[in-house]
Write a structure and sequence with these properties.
The chain has 301 residues and is mainly α. Helices cover 75% and strands 0% of the residues. It has helices at residues 2-28, 31-65, 69-86, 94-102, 108-134, 139-147, 159-180, 185-207, 213-220, 228-251, 274-296. It is globular, with a radius of gyration of 28 Å.
């Protein structure tokens, strides 16, 4: 269990380092630069380092560390919760940033800056984690260093099935994100952490369950076993299609592309009830007759 303890210490170190980075960026950078670059960089940096170490535990832990899948899934849930609570408004996911752009919540320039920061953050996280593994602090890291140069593709099923799985995971994640985006973090964070844990458990053996293009690009694109185009289809086009389907199902339209609601009819908020109008008309008729009767009545002698 010494290897697991070292990994947990690494998770704390990654979290603390990114928190310091967020704190410094708030003090030193302008709000716009901090929002578009620093937060996304820190979020992707933290996510990539945690994901790489966790995947190492998943791959080697059961036979090299003596702990089962239940331990790793528990760590995944806790890390997802900590990650969601510490993002400080960042998404660390290109499909979420593109969703904000399609919802008219972000400009094209801001979205491009976010995507760039996410890619750089994931790449830096990958490089730093590989350096940390090279120190071989535990037997797990020693084994990881031996197999890292010959890493194989995370796609263990047919290409259409893999793209469908990544798209389905992205669809469910974005649908829940859209539903809970106005909710209090006390409810939103654990629900999203449980969703990520379930999706990873269900789709992990087939595709690695990334549903995050920047994360997948940094972790698995350099591995042999699948072509670059296959990786693009599974880890970029699949999640993007899932995000678009979730947005269309939730909104009925895509505001950046078209305003017409294709799925849900929009009723007027100021519709006058017909029953009241009819009652008022019927109630006015006798009054008109009585007024007419009074005006036409001739005085008797």
């Amino acid at each position: 269990m010494d290897g697991l303890n070292v990994s947990i210490a690494f998770f704390f170190l990654a979290f603390g380092l990114c928190q310091v980075l967020r704190w410094l960026s708030k003090r030193l950078l302008s709000p716009g630069t901090h929002g578009c670059l620093a937060r996304e960089f820190a979020g992707s940096f933290q996510l990539c380092m945690s994901c790489l170490e966790l995947r190492m535990l998943i791959d080697i832990g059961p036979w090299g560390g003596g702990f089962g899948l239940d331990v790793v899934l528990t760590l995944l849930f806790l890390l997802s919760a900590v990650h969601g609570a510490s993002l400080d408004g960042a998404s660390a996911n290109p499909t979420v940033s593109l969703q904000e752009f399609l919802l008219l919540e972000s400009s094209l320039a801001a979205t491009g800056a976010k995507l760039l920061a996410q890619g750089v953050g994931a790449g830096m996280g990958w490089a730093l984690t590989r350096l940390y593994w090279s120190w071989e602090l535990t037997q797990l890291h020693f084994i990881q260093n031996l197999i890292a140069p010959e890493c194989s593709s995370s796609i263990h099923t047919s290409l259409p099935h893999a793209a469908f799985l990544e798209g389905s995971c992205s669809f469910l994640l974005h649908l829940i994100l859209l539903k809970l985006r106005q909710s209090h973090p006390l409810y939103r964070v654990p629900v999203l952490a449980a969703t990520v844990t379930f999706l990873t458990y269900a789709a992990g053996p087939y595709t690695g369950a990334f549903f995050n293009p920047a994360l997948a690009t940094a972790i698995t694109f350099h591995c042999s076993g699948s072509s670059f185009w296959a990786y693009i289809q599974v880890y970029w086009l699949g999640p993007l299609a899932g995000m678009l389907a979730a947005l269309l199902l939730f909104q009925g339209n895509i505001p950046r592309l078209f305003q017409k609601n294709l799925l849900y009819s929009q009723k007027s908020k100021y519709k006058v009830p017909k029953a009241k109008v009819t009652a008022q008309v019927e109630g006015d008729k006798p009054q008109k007759k009585r007024k007419g009767g009074k005006s036409n009545a001739e005085p008797h002698a």
